[in-house]
């Protein structure tokens, strides 16, 4: 069934974007391979991270997550961090003064690194448990205390892997919803399929990728038909994503209306969604969030602002929040 991806409310600029002319390849999208990709990425430490070409983009992404957590998480709450990776949000959970954290990730090495980070937290005021598992193929509920209920479920930059097929998307949503209390929130960040599809459709005939010096997105299975790029399926629409110093593996588009309709079946009602560019325009007007932008070094302060290429890459993503009915 053909779906229309052009349902974004945003008009975005694409400054300095360039076509990806590399040959088209087939990529291994096996979940174990994706897990290995993240397991193999070294935990380089704070000093090395500051030397990254995308340090401003990383800081900006952390700012977005911090704002989401500030808006939707309250002290003494239980949180499920699904797809937690190496624990990049541990300090954010500590600052939010949560009560208990359940962390799960398919990459067992990354999860163990998170556990070690947790054990060395100076402000470790919350308890935590860690589960190495594929949250798109396994259910979290049997692994938890039967009385456990979450106030917030967080999925940061990982939900799109569930859209390999409908079955995985439903398992993911079951994991989000089953232990989430009524009135609780499901928050997250993920690639903005509308932005990506619009951008690749701007490419000339025969070009199925785009990017700049820090990122590239390349599709294998779409095609040109009567001057329009087609083949953007609701599930399993794979592309290869490269972001310098961060990601180099296949991902899947998340068709928004399909996602929102599925979420409704699991009792989740959309509260908001915004592309990162629009999120910045709105949230940065709030004094507390503007101060945080300056404090973490995204804008102002001693260092230069984000480069145009980093800003373009930020537009790949959107932020969202659902409420459990």
TrEMBL record:
Q: Which reaction does it catalyse?
A: a 5'-end (5'-triphosphoguanosine)-ribonucleoside in mRNA + S-adenosyl-L-methionine = a 5'-end (N(7)-methyl 5'-triphosphoguanosine)-ribonucleoside in mRNA + S-adenosyl-L-homocysteine
Q: Could you say which residues are annotated as the site mRNA cap binding?
A: 86, 92, 117, 160, 251, 317
Q: Which domain of life is it from?
A: Eukaryota
Where is this gene product found? Nucleus
Listed EC numbers? 2.1.1.56
Q: Where is this region: Disordered?
A: 1-41
Q: Which residues bind mRNA?
A: 61-62
What residues bind S-adenosyl-L-methionine, as annotated?
65, 83, 105, 134, 156, 161
Recorded GO terms, molecular function? Answer: mRNA 5'-cap (guanine-N7-)-methyltransferase activity; RNA binding
Coiled-coil regions listed: none
Instruction: Give the record's keywords alphabetically.
Output: Methyltransferase, mRNA capping, mRNA processing, Nucleus, RNA-binding, S-adenosyl-L-methionine, Transferase
GO CC terms for this protein?
A: cytosol; P-TEFb-cap methyltransferase complex
Tell me the ranges covered by the MRNA cap 0 methyltransferase domain, including all copies.
52-325
According to the UniProt entry, which residue ranges have a biased composition of type Low complexity?
Answer: 8-20
Give the matching PROSITE patterns. Answer: RNA_CAP0_MT
* Protein name, entry field: mRNA cap guanine-N(7) methyltransferase
Source organism per UniProt: Mucor ambiguus
Q: What is the lineage of its organism?
A: Eukaryota, Fungi, Fungi incertae sedis, Mucoromycota, Mucoromycotina
């Amino acid at each position: 069934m053909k779906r229309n991806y052009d349902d974004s409310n945003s008009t975005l600029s694409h400054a300095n974007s360039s076509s990806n002319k590399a040959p088209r390849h087939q990529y291994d999208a096996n979940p174990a391979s994706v897990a290995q990709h993240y397991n193999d990425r070294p935990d380089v430490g704070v000093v090395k991270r500051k030397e990254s070409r995308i340090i401003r983009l990383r800081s900006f992404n952390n700012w977005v997550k911090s704002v989401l957590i500030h808006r939707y998480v309250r002290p003494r709450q239980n949180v499920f961090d699904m797809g937690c990776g190496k624990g990049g949000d541990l300090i954010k959970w500590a600052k939010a003064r949560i009560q208990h954290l359940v962390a799960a990730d398919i990459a067992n090495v990354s999860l163990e690194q998170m556990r070690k980070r947790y054990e060395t937290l100076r402000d470790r005021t919350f308890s935590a448990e860690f589960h190495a598992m594929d949250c798109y193929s396994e259910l979290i509920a049997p692994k938890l205390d039967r009385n456990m209920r979450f106030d917030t479920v967080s999925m940061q930059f990982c939900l799109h892997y569930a859209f390999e097929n409908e079955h995985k998307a439903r398992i993911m949503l079951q994991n989000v919803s089953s232990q989430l209390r009524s009135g609780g929130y499901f928050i997250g960040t993920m690639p903005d399929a509308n932005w990506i599809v619009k951008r690749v459709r701007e490419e000339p005939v025969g070009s199925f990728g785009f990017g700049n010096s820090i990122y590239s997105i390349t599709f294998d299975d779409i095609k040109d038909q009567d001057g329009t790029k087609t083949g953007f399926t609701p599930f399993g629409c794979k592309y290869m994503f490269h972001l310098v110093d961060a990601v180099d593996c296949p991902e899947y588009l998340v068709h928004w209306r399909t996602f929102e309709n599925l979420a409704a079946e699991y009792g989740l009602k959309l509260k908001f969604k915004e592309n990162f560019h629009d999120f910045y325009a709105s949230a940065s007007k709030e004094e507390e969030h503007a101060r945080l932008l300056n404090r973490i070094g995204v804008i102002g302060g001693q260092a230069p602002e984000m480069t145009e290429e980093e800003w373009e890459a930020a537009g790949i993503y959107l932020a969202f929040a659902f409420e459990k009915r």
